[in-house]
Design goal:
- The complex is a heterodimer of chains A (about 350) and B (about 400).
- Chain A has about 350 residues and is α/β, with parallel strands linked by helices.
- Chain A is built from 14 helices and 6 strands.
- In chain B, strand 6 and strand 7 form a beta hairpin.
- Chain B has helices spanning about 10-25, 50-55, 70-80, 90-110, 115-130, 140-150, 155-160, 185-235, 240-250, 370-390, 395-400; strands spanning about 30-35, 35-40, 165, 170, 275-285, 300-315, 320-330, 340-350, 350-355, 365.
- Chain B is built from 11 helices and 10 strands.
- By secondary structure, chain B is α+β, with helices and mostly antiparallel strands.
- Classes of the chains: A alpha/beta (about 350), B alpha+beta (about 400).
């Protein structure tokens, strides 16, 4: 049978096969929270499929580690005392170390600045999506949606851009509309920050204009927390030209900002923290199901009250807000050095957090 | 996969339609697959909320689904699309359209939900006419363009909960059909399910028509992934700065990474390169020694390829004809003057050899592990082969005694 597929795309960090279990648990749990969804078996109509691109980074890291170790071994064996050679070999080994910068933030820098790595990531994601769709009978390929987080939003966005613009050399073809997503949900988006495909980060063909035979999807939603430093560095904020006249912005796009006071933990960037919030999962569920009335506004408000009751309060909330505000950079990017500093600080929060988003 | 032969009957779908209607008429009652419970004619169970019910039924795992929907129309459709289609083949597509058009004609004639069935029928006929004009399309891009024009993405909007544009007018197939809640389904609801089913079958047909390109693009992605893996592992290994430099070179080469002439935007994927620069690359080497009997007899050496180039051709997913050269600096303990030696280095497949000389010193040979292994491995093979020859003397070898 042809259930609606939901591809989950991870962000920055150490993700192995099976990483999405906790994340999908949040979404399936959300189905069970709302009576009409629960009592009419809507969850049965969906299947989740995780996309994992972390092995691309790991492959390079492992190779750098092995090669640098061999060179270091030769340095020792020859008894050479050369500062230059020593520096060179340490530089060769540095991306393969075990500090925060090397194990996680480097992925972001690698995707943005190392073309062979970015291209391999694109092809890996393309292969996983198309391979999964191809596993269905050719006359019953299911519809699908994408929920991506953090670095994963840039990975997904640029991979789809490559697929949609493929064929310029006349040797291939762009991705057919039959195999484009119904919905794209970007959580804590870095798509604008990391855009590295030239021109505007908002080409019209990537807009939610699929109903008119063009565009990436029928619907596109962007979720960020007001205090999440990552999506706030360079916000995904498409101009009017991204939307087709026949697909008005209000009907095909949502930009949801979670309020400053809505914090259940300091790791505001967490995928699970976002998905647990009713202002995130309710729009997602409504669009997946294609029936807004399946969750009433009254039910949304009731769940919001429940969520906020479990949030940080008083002094703890004030301290968390202060700590996160200190990490926010100016809206216009201040340069990569500052952004990397911010990512490093954020990684400390993530690693201290109980909620791991499925990271190893 | 079960092979089904298309019968040489002009309209085979009629037989399927009649058989299916008979079967369902005899069966009665809702048909349930999980939470996809499709009401059937004669079903007397009350439905509390028809809008909510349709919201569930419209999803692609329900109405029109290959496995979950037993409707005659779906069974007939399945039989026609059971085999993969190929580029340029429209026969199955046209037969599927004929099936759907016949069903729509039957509904339109009943006058139930006529304002929805009339534009649906007209649109289906227009799709069929468009498809019939694609017989000459032979290329992948041309086929995709023709299929997109004939069967657009709008058909998926119904399962997404949206109105659909049929022959230029917006029609909401999901708008309440007029049945009273908390009652058994009325005739209009059955008609509404059928029209949603038709839309979902059109969406399936759209995917079916484009499926050859899905397979092609998946194969392309797999080949590219294997080449990128070979680029990393079979080429001269690159450190992070080399990956950066080679990436910049690649980015500026439009034969590898095409760009839109107007915006400068990258288009599609970059091809995997067939060359790389080698820059300030430290690695372990082995200093050659005439008296060495095995690899472990060779002295360790540090090699730094200062600048070099390595090229290959792709043979499927593997690198072929790997050749390269670089300027190398080497250092080993056997260098009595303990100075760096410099000279050319050549690469042949995965083997490398540098001939270097320190100022005032002697020429020395430094090889990589792969070359050393190859040499000593072959040497051992020759030695073993000679040992296996039982003839002890030259005379015996010549005369076979």
């Amino acid at each position: 049978m042809s259930k609606h597929q939901v591809f989950l795309v991870h962000g920055m960090g150490d993700f192995e096969l099976g990483w999405s279990e906790a994340v999908r648990g949040r979404i399936v749990g959300a189905f069970s929270t709302y009576p009409k969804l629960r009592d009419n078996g809507f969850a049965d109509a969906f299947e989740f499929k995780e996309i994992t691109y972390n092995p691309v980074f790991e492959g390079w890291r492992d190779q750098w580690r092995a090669d640098a170790q061999a060179a270091a071994g030769a340095l020792t064996a020859t008894g050479l005392s050369s500062k230059a050679a020593d520096t060179l070999i340490k530089g060769a080994a540095s991306p393969a170390g075990s500090s925060f910068w090397q194990t996680h933030v480097l992925d972001v820098v690698g995707f943005r600045f190392l073309m062979p790595i970015a291209q391999t990531v694109y092809r890996s994601v393309q292969s996983q999506i198309l391979g999964h769709l191809k596993s269905f009978p050719p006359d019953d390929v299911p519809p699908y949606s994408v929920i991506a987080h953090s670095l994963g939003t840039a990975v997904a966005y640029e991979t789809f851009h490559a697929m949609l613009t493929n064929g310029a050399d006349g040797q291939s073809a762009p991705l057919g509309t039959a195999f484009r997503p119904n919905n794209v949900f970007m959580v804590a988006s870095t798509a604008k920050l990391l855009w590295n495909r030239g021109g505007s980060a908002y080409p019209a063909m990537m807009g939610p204009n699929l109903a008119n035979g063009d565009g990436l999807s029928f619907y596109f939603a962007n979720f960020r927390h007001a205090l999440d430093p990552v999506p706030n560095v360079d916000r995904f904020d498409p101009p009017a030209s991204w939307f087709a006249p026949t697909a008005p912005k209000d009907a095909v796009y949502a930009d949801v900002v979670l309020p400053e006071g809505d914090l259940q933990q300091l790791n505001v960037h967490s995928f699970e923290h976002y998905l647990s919030h009713p202002m995130v999962h309710v729009p997602i569920l409504r669009k997946l199901v294609g029936f807004d009335s399946v969750i009433s506004d009254a039910e949304l408000k009731a769940q919001l009250k429940v969520w906020r009751a479990a949030g940080l309060v008083d002094q703890t909330l004030a301290e968390a807000k202060a700590q996160l505000k200190a990490m926010l950079l100016a809206r216009a990017t201040e340069g990569w050095a500052k952004e990397i500093d911010m990512l490093l600080t954020l990684r400390e929060l993530v690693l201290a957090s109980k909620v791991k988003d499925g990271e190893s | 996969m079960t092979t089904i032969t298309l019968h040489p009957v002009r309209r085979p779908w009629r037989a399927w339609l009649l058989a299916g209607l008979l079967a369902i008429g005899l069966a009665g009652g809702a048909v349930a697959q999980g939470s996809c419970t499709i009401p059937q004619p004669g079903d007397h169970a009350a439905i509390a909320d028809f809008d909510l019910k349709l919201a569930r039924l419209k999803l692609r795992d329900c109405l029109g689904d290959r496995a979950n929907d037993p409707a005659a129309l779906v069974q007939g459709f399945n039989a026609l699309t059971n085999e993969p289609t190929l580029l340029g083949q429209t026969e199955r597509l046209l037969q599927a359209m004929d099936l759907l058009i016949a069903d729509a004609e039957r509904h339109e004639a009943t006058n139930v939900l006529k304002p929805r069935w009339t534009p649906m029928l007209e649109d289906l006929r227009a799709v069929r006419a468009e498809l019939a004009g694609t017989l000459d399309v032979k290329t992948g891009a041309g086929w995709l363009s023709a299929m997109e024009k004939a069967i657009g993405p709008k058909w998926r909007q119904v399962s997404s909960g949206q109105p659909i544009v049929l022959v230029g007018q917006s029609v909401d197939l999901l708008a309440n059909a007029g049945c009273a809640n908390d009652q058994p389904p009325c005739e209009a609801f059955f008609s509404q399910m059928d029209i949603v089913r038709t839309a979902n079958l059109m969406d399936r047909l759209r995917g079916y028509s484009q499926s050859p390109l899905l397979a092609q693009q998946y194969d392309e992605s797999q080949l590219a992934l294997k080449r990128w893996d070979a680029y990393r592992t079979q080429g001269q290994h690159q450190y992070i700065w080399e990956v950066f430099i080679n990436g910049q070179v690649m980015d500026g080469d439009q034969s590898l990474c095409p760009r839109d002439a107007g915006t400068g935007m990258k288009m599609g994927f970059c091809k995997v390169p067939e060359s790389q620069w080698i820059v300030a690359h430290p690695e372990a080497g082995l200093r050659w020694s005439d008296g060495a009997e095995q690899r472990s007899d060779l002295q360790a050496a540090l090699v730094i390829q200062l600048i070099g180039r390595y090229q290959w051709k792709w043979d499927g997913s593997t690198m072929a004809n790997r050749r390269g050269y670089s300027l190398a600096a080497t250092y080993s303990q056997s260098d009595t003057n303990k100075r760096w030696a410099f000279g050319p280095m050549i690469h042949y497949d995965d083997m490398s050899l540098a001939l270097t000389k320190a100022p005032g010193g002697h020429w020395g040979l430094v090889v990589n592990v792969a070359l050393a292994d190859r040499f000593f491995g072959r040497k051992q093979e020759v030695t073993d082969a000679l040992r296996n020859v039982r003839k002890a003397s030259f005379g015996e070898l010549l005369f076979g005694r």
